[in-house]
Amino acid sequence: MRIATFNLESLDLSPGGESAFQRRAAVLAPQLDRLHADILCLQEVNGQHVPGQALRRLVALERLLAETAYRNFHVFGAGGSPEKPIADVHNLVVVSRWPARHSEALRHRLVPPLPYRSVTATPEATRELTLTWDRPLLHALFDLPSGRALHVVNLHLRSPLAAPIPGHKLDADRWGSLGGWAEGYFTATMKRSGQALEARLLAEQVFDADPNALLAVCGDLNAGEEETPSRILQAGVEDSGNAVLAGRALEALELRLPEERRFTLRHGGRRRMLDHILCSPALAARCTAVAVDNTDLADETAMVADDPRSNHAPLVADFGI
Hints:
Elements: E1 2-11, H1 18-35, E2 39-45, H2 59-65, E3 74-78, E4 91-96, E5 100-106, E6 114-117, E7 128-131, E8 137-143, E9 149-156, E10 169-171, E11 174-175, H3 178-209, E12 214-220, H4 228-234, H5 237-240, E13 251-252, E14 265-267, E15 270-272, E16 275-279, H6 281-284, E17 287-292, E18 315-319
Parallel strand pairs: 1-2, 9-12
Antiparallel strand pairs: 1-18, 2-4, 3-4, 5-8, 6-7, 8-9, 10-11, 12-16, 13-16, 14-15, 17-18
Helix pairs in contact: 3-4
């Protein structure tokens, strides 16, 4: 069995954008086929309006997959509210060889929105804020041909870019004060860590039901394995100080890669590992190989606006199941 995770970077089909989609599909379709995945966790899949239908659909993804070996796979998506399950941008999608026994989008089911009083917002009447997650997480449960159950969680945590603070943004890209920017960066960190906490608490529920569960948490964490969101998710024995809890830790499989290959994004010459496959001990013990398709990964600071490639590299792991 092979699991892969890949941030497609705003896969879309905008009005009049047929040629742009075709250029992207010409690059992404063969890249997806190279992964040979049985379960594919995708991030940043945009939703499209369909004439005569109230809800958005993943039309761009449907068209892309139709050009690949995944054309007959099962597709599960989440990104908006329960009333509008497919959002306009940045949906999470799981593409699987097998149907899901259960799939669910979680957003504030296990961690409620965080009441927060700003210290810099102006005017003062705007200081009572509520911190909510930008996106849900997507949980799918599969019955494998071996008879074992497999839990897959697809994540896309918030970018560390500073969140808006009332009275401090001059426009989309400029701040009026460093104090406001600093608090925005702080609140963005809380949002990203809160998303990670919700995923960790979901993992705790999975382990409560089955201490030897096969669980993979995949996706773009916008964080390296040593940063707070990843630490919350991995929750190793060195963090808890309790060896009894070792069976609930999640292993970052990219650590099995040679250090020089351990990156999924290039930014200004710096290589970063932002995309991860974190596995329960029972699943990690069955991992036979880990690979990352980053040989020709472009530096995102040098990519032009209509570059058809994703600025992320896909990560894959094989399991003997």
